[in-house]
Amino acid sequence: xxxxxxxxxxxxxxxxxxxxxxxxxxxxxxxxxxxxxxxxxxxxxxxxxxxxxxxxxxxxxxxxxxxxxxxxxxxxxxxxxxxxxxxxxxxxxxxxxxxxxxxxxxxxxxxxxxxxxxxxxxxxxxxxxxxxxxxxxxxxxxxxxxxxxxxxxxxxxxxxxxxxxxxxxxxxxxxxxxxxxxxxxxxxxxxxxxxxxxxxxxxxxxxxxxxxxxxxxxxxxxxxxxxxxxxxxxxxxxxxxxxxxxxxxxxxxxxxxxxxxxxxxxxxxxxxxxxxxxxxxxxxxxxxxxxxxxxxxxxxxxxxxxxxxxxxxxxxxxxxxxxxxxxxxxxxxxxxxxxxxxxxxxxxxxxxxxxxxxxxxxxxxxxxxxxxxxxxxxxxxxxxxxxxxxxxxxxxxxxxxxxxxxxxxxxxxxxxxxxxxxxxxxxxxxxxxxxxxxxxxxxxxxxxxxxxxxxxxxxxxxxxxxxxxxxxxxxxxxxxxxxxxxxxxxxxxxxxxxxxxxxxxxxxxxxxxxxxxxxxxxxxxx
Length: 526
Hints:
By secondary structure, the chain is mainly alpha-helical. The protein has a domain at 269-461. It contains 21 helices and two strands. It has a two-stranded antiparallel sheet with strand order 1-2. It starts with a helix and ends with a helix. Residues 449-460 have low confidence and may be disordered.
């Protein structure tokens, strides 16, 4: 296996563990609160703190910082890397703190007019209180997210990959001990119950954020981190990062607006619509994280190095290989999950039939865009690796506009599921446009001596390997869907609905493998 493959598999393994813990957390919360008003308030209240976290820590910082830090490490030394890192960290923490204070001060008008205008005044007041408490975790995350970027720039992925698991452990503690009013009993162990209700979940978030940071401290020690004071605004390397971060901040802002728009639209539907969208998104994020995020996270330092050294042929080949792997896996997985998910959702969340049906169709709406979300992970990183943050910013704005248009249009015809479909369609369009532009840019760089007309003909000629992968992936999805449906039908009597569903999905995946075996082998040679 290549270094990139080992890193991707390591990240994917820990992301899988993280998703297991995340699902356990969500199941505990779902069984405690159901699709109720307090849980809707908790989920809506996270939007603005999450936006600040995404803007000024992992979301903006990692993609803007890693390419420059990788270049500093390659051309200078690790000591210089930590100087640049420290100065950016100081600046980002200060800005995050100032914005958190502003959000806390103006929380009520923000909630009433933007975040949840459809909620009644009592629920809006609860959202405000939870939001202000969540800002504490945001400040911790602003430091922890920066540490993730610093360690990944050093080609170290273990501790950053472990951090989300510890975040979930903190939240699970909040859900098991702080939130419930009656003790949980696990065999001989009985956990105390603090009876804090939904606010116990908030304290669990704060604890999880602290653990998220603490687990990465050994990584800083390993790479001999030393902190440097000041902001370094006259340092050309800092200015280079800031030039990338400016458009990136706008890009992440547009992305986070889609979550606010989602909950804004859902607040006008019946109780539970917001939480159903939250859970449906979470379910879709399991395969998306294990595929798209894991590969793209491992890919970024490598393609940043290739871009900085002008190895564009290898850059393009690596991007195409990663895209083919994502296409081959994402399409069959989306189909298999859409067909076989119902018994699993029913057993895990223990909702009533109407709530289960709502969550199931919302999840299917999100799964339509699984491939688009996976491709977005590598498409956006390809531009940041080449230190181009403007193009993703422009298309993130287009995506946000399309999301609102599609969400409003589809929700009027198919209800809450339409909001999920709007998400899927807008992100798929954005991913396709970004990859198309990347292909054009790289081709023009390689084909300068060729006549202009010849270059345009080659650009619009489909990539044979890519088209072959798409066809085989669709065939794999068709066969997998047939096998999954037949498996559920004929195994439900001996195995029960849950056993039949899980077995049928495994059989469906096995039936798909021969069609995408080439890409399965390519995973080991990224």
